[in-house]
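Figure S4 source data
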Amino acid sequence: MNKNLLFRSIPKVDILLEEQEIQDLIDAYGRELVMDVIREEMDALRTFIGKCEEEEKAKAQIGMLTQNIKRHAGKLHEPNMKMVINGTGTVLHTNLGRAPISKEHVERLAGIVSGYSNLEYNLEAGARGERYSHFEKESELITMDMFPSEVKNLFWTFLLNSFHEHDYTNESYFDEYSKKNVFIKETSYQKEQFKNYIT
């Protein structure tokens, strides 16, 4: 097998650029990206020929150059995230995107995120606001009394770990936490519970 002949049979870049399929790629993705893909695929082809010991396989790979260029360019524009089936038995699976969002909420979000929104703007005050303020009303309905003791214990453990470098009895630290955590809004009663629990 004469590998020098095989290397010389690889189409030159200017010849490839004259092919209609390559021209279509340039129209779709731009010349710069297509040129990068061509170089990468030609380098890969040379590497393949260099390692290949069967002439017919090497010739077949050369004949697939244009198709490999098309596949490579298309893959760069294909979304990497895809729908999968969760067969693990774990409903809230972090690796699989946690919990699915209902179509109703997706449609609602699409109508908002496809344009500008008042994410950090208070429309009533006409001034800058806080992004978490949109959940304040809902979070007020959620208190620690609604959860079982196991969840409460986990919550207290989290708070202890969060404040382990501070003076736990200092109310300012608790207030600072309450400002940042809008998902569980503590009442004055629960604030006292917290102080009693850690002192």
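Figure S5 source data
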Amino acid sequence: MKHLRLDPERVKIVDRRSRLMEYVAKGITNNKELASLLNTSPATVSRDFLFVAKAASKNLHNWTDKMLPLSVKCLSVSTDMIMRKAWKLLEKSEHKDGLDERKHQLEILQFIAALNGLKRNFMVDYENVVLQLTSHRAVPLD
């Protein structure tokens, strides 16, 4: 197996950018303060911010374009499978008239109604999320 040699300068840059984001996550956003903490210049901090923002934007677009549709499809298929199973359970118990069976049927119908409501809410939320993600690009991609 071939050993990969890591460029020490590249490792240093990746580490600095990682530490930069840790400081930002802690609420430190002043370039001069960040530069002091990272032992670098404010200009380097600005370049690192731009690089990290572009990478994050690219990752978000990749997720939105590729992973989100697949996740939505899986969720939709799963919900449809659950819905079919619930309807089968209801149909199996429809010819039974006992009080416990009627309670069971009511629970199934309530579950189906709740599942339909969740699916409807998800579809509305999904459209809103996709609209927000695609209309407000934080950093234009080159």
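The mean pLDDT is 83. The chain has one domain: 8-135.
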